[in-house]
Amino acid sequence: MPAADDAPVILGNEPGSFARGVLTDRHPALIQQVRDAFPCTPVQHRALDALLRSVTDGVIEPLAPDAHDRAQWEIWGRDSAGGSWFGRSWFDVPFLWSESYFYRVLLDAMGHFTDGPWRGVDPFAPFKDAELRGTAVDDELAALDGLAGRSADEQALALAHASLWGNRADLSFRIASGAAPTDGGTDPRLVADDGPLLWSLLPVGAASTVHLIADNAGRELIPDLVLLDHLLHTERASRAVLHVKPYPYYVSDATMTDVIDSLRRLGAASGYAAEIGKRLWSAMAAGRLAVRAHGFFRAPLPYSAMPDDLRQDLAGATVTILKGDLNYRRLVGDRYWAPTSSFAGRTAYFPGPVAALRTLKSDVIVGLDAHVLDGLEASGKPWRTSGTHGLVQARR
Ligand SMILES: O=P(O)(O)OC[C@@]1(O)O[C@H](CO)[C@@H](O)[C@@H]1O
Fold first, then answer.
1. Which of 66, 318, 393, 395 is the most exposed place for a label (fewest CB within 10 A)?
2. Concatenated DSSP letters for 52-86?
3. Cα of 327 to ligand 1 centre, how many Å?
């Protein structure tokens, strides 16, 4: 796998690849799940049928002429040779692009952008709600009580790991379980751990501003919020900015509605979770915690293409933390990089110090030590895509 900038872009057409499996299996299954979760109208059923036909046998169609963002997607759909992804097979265009566009068309099929009763309805809300109301979240919130008596450093480590593994919807605040070592020991599931560098970027009392680019709602967003509360409460940060998606995206990606739901869930809990909920509520009122939903967060593009206003905003961060797999793909570029190529090199364009907390769920990976890579490859297991491994990577 090449280290150079011309590393192959991940497409969906390689037989047996993870990307192809997402297009052939996950997208049709998701259409069915959405169909089953809502009392769909004939118009919606027809639109979902059309999307299913398109993703299985057809080509990528442009948005309707009156779609509010048609012109934007036409620009985003240009290839580097001046052609267009529209009219091509879903399998033959960049995976990042086809996945993003799939979600855009799915929202259209459900009438999300059309005047009428379905405008603004989140097609993924039933799944998000079920997760947020589930007993697993009760248990995870109750487990926060066990953290209250620990040192600030132990809490920081446990909460960062909870945020990381929350990306697998497998968060664990339970330091007693040994899942997330708090003694400075290494978590064997981490393929890279720049935790010490991350903490060195946020010394106590330095009036830092931390930005966090969120990923999923529910069992990931709650630990993300708890982590931000910790950074504010312990004065590792004096301001926090949470970036969410401007509309529902990638099944469970967090929107402002999800932030509100999570804050209400924390506030309605008991014990330490409720205390955290109250602090976050006050931090919002005081402007110490801000939420933003820039349109670029739903773009089918890497962050190297971010617009100037977002670049300037992130340039004001002491450190920007990116959560999850998709943000990682967009951070380093959705390509088959050499796994040992440098994380700092791949992210040099980013407008300030940056950190990634991610469980591995797709083929993209950089910044591995050669011996770590050898061990992973020797395991014979699908370590890149199974969500069994995670990473903390950072650069100043
Ligand atoms: O960003 P997340 O939530 O960690 O994961 C998103 C993701 O793993 O799910 C897709 C498969 O459905 C991948 O293509 C994509 O990267």
1. 66
2. HHHHHHSBPPPPPTT-TTHHHHHHHTB-TTS-BST
3. 9
